[in-house]
């Protein structure tokens, strides 16, 4: 059974950038519903008892309910984890800071490219910063609740270390149709300490393993 992880802060902790009502509904109801429906979708199938990345490895062999709810479960686990109460860290730290600087030139350029990717998602989906098996960083997007670790068409996009939920339920109460403003404010509440620890975990995993089948997706402890 997959369980809804408790929110690692209070509902109002992301204000003024994400309001408390949005966080409460988004976590307790949306994320809660994906989690419950995911358990129902895998019940009695060979996926029962497997970990999330093993399930993502064979996601194309199963119905859309597994893909959509399994993605919804895992994507939101990461989303809540990489957000932080206002003021925790405004800029990348540690190894991820160095990696962003060497890959994109500067944090500001990375932020522009990530914003551009997020704005390019038509309808509901996600934008991600992932680590490729080569260790390189890459910005990508996925539709609906697809996760970059899902093997689709034989390929994975990479190990996600940062993700922004672009479904309207993530921002509509405060921002209505103003997705650009939500994305701009998202950068004020990223927990770069967690993103750094996920980056290090991904690099370590790639050094020790040929693929990510048993990767501990989004399971780094909150410091
Ligand atoms: Mn969501």
Overview of the structural elements:
It is a single chain. The protein has 223 residues and is mainly α. It has a single domain (20-208), classed as Iron/manganese superoxide dismutase, C-terminal domain (minor pseudopilin epsh fold), CATH 3.55.40. It has helices at residues 20-42, 52-57, 64-82, 94-104, 107-120, 172-175, 179-186, 192-208, and strands at 125-131, 137-143, 159-165. A 3-stranded antiparallel sheet has the order 2-1-3. A hairpin with a 5-residue loop joins strand 1 (125-131) and strand 2 (137-143). The radius of gyration is 16 Å and the shape is globular. The mean pLDDT is 92. Manganese (II) ion is lined by residues 26, 30, 76, 165, 167, 169-170.
């Amino acid at each position: 059974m997959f369980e809804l992880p408790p929110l690692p802060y209070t509902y109002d902790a992301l204000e003024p950038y994400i309001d408390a009502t949005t966080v409460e509904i988004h976590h307790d109801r949306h994320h809660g519903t994906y989690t419950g429906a995911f358990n129902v979708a895998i019940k009695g199938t060979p996926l029962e008892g497997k970990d999330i990345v093993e399930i993502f490895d064979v996601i194309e062999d199963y119905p859309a309910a597994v893909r959509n709810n399994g993605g919804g479960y895992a994507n939101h686990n990461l989303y809540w984890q990489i957000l932080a109460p206002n003021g925790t860290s405004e800029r990348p730290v540690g190894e991820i800071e160095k990696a962003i600087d060497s890959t994109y030139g500067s944090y500001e350029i990375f932020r522009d490219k990530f914003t551009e990717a997020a704005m390019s998602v038509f309808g509901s989906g996600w934008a991600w910063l992932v680590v490729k098996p080569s260790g390189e960083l890459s910005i990508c997007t996925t539709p609906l609740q697809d996760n970059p670790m899902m093997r689709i068409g034989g390929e994975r996009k990479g190990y996600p270390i940062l993700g922004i939920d672009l479904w309207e339920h993530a921002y509509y109460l405060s921002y209505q149709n103003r997705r650009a403003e939500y994305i701009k404010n998202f950068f004020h509440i990223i927990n770069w300490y967690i993103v750094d620890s996920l980056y290090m975990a991904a690099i370590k995993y790639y050094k020790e393993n040929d693929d990510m089948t048993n990767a501990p997706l989004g399971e780094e402890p909150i410091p």
